[in-house]
């Protein structure tokens, strides 16, 4: 089966799921990734059953992105950690109902200014959280895919390098089928890492690939038009443009930038 190529839906786009699915297919794509923050923030968010029906109607595949703002699976605070794990599990539940291919998850972080013993506890908690979430992923039969994170001057993130990502994965004893990798090529670039190193290290364990570009100074999430060689070289099942503006999705695939049209009912 050929890999799916699509785009992530962002709360900043200000469109409905149906409008975005129509837009994605109009520009020639066949996949949508739902960021949990969008689903929490938009007033007209469909439930997972409706997402599944829309995906079948538009013939697109779906992935979900677990929360990555206002939460932290790697928190040193046990209450925050447990709440964050529950939010990942609820995302996995919704993904299973919607027939999603995978759920993307970040590995957590801790402020660099905190003492070393706090930072160590935070990393240990991140491993515990990832194990709980991966075991639940196995239960609901939806793969969880740990993403390489961008560096942050104020926070220590646990999966910024291939080695750090591998150490987190190796610390969790679940089948690789249920704990895969999301390769974010933009994060790799801004960190000074070659995306090929991730491919060499993780191979077919890479299930999802996030596509965006930057100038190497910040995680800018700019359009990426030179993506075809990446799709050919990276053994992912789903490739996702992560843009800050909806028109940038069209720019990536080289078609005239358009805006999603409001749904006015009637036949397609």
How would you sum up this structure in a few lines?
By secondary structure, the protein is an alpha/beta fold. It has 10 helices and 10 strands. Strand 9, helix 9 and strand 10 (238-241) form a beta-alpha-beta unit.
SSE-based structural type = alpha/beta
Radius of gyration: 18 Å
What's the total number of strands?
10
User: Biggest sheet, in brief?
Assistant: 8 strands, parallel, barrel
Low-confidence parts: 263-268
SSE order, as H and E? EHEHHEHEEHEEHEHHEHEH
Question: Fraction of residues in helices?
Answer: 40-55%
Strand content: 15-25%
The span between the termini is: 27 Å
Please tell me the overall pLDDT: 92
What's the number of helices?
A: 10
Tell me, briefly, the overall form.
globular
Major sheet: arrangement of strands: 1-2-3-4-6-8-9-10
Describe this structure in words.
- The protein has 268 residues and is an alpha/beta fold.
- It is 41% helix and 17% strand.
- It contains 10 helices and 10 strands.
- It has helices at residues 17-26, 36-41, 48-58, 78-98, 116-140, 162-170, 185-190, 195-202, 228-233, 247-253; strands at 4-9, 31-35, 61-65, 103-105, 109-111, 144-147, 155-157, 179-184, 206-211, 238-241.
- The strands form 2 sheets. The chain has an 8-stranded parallel barrel, surrounded by 5 helices.
- β1, α1 (17-26) and β2 form a beta-alpha-beta unit.
- α1 packs parallel to α3 (48-58) and α4 packs parallel to α5.
- The longest helix has 25 residues, at 116-140.
- It starts with a strand and ends in a 15-residue tail after the last helix.
- The model is unreliable at 263-268 (pLDDT under 50).
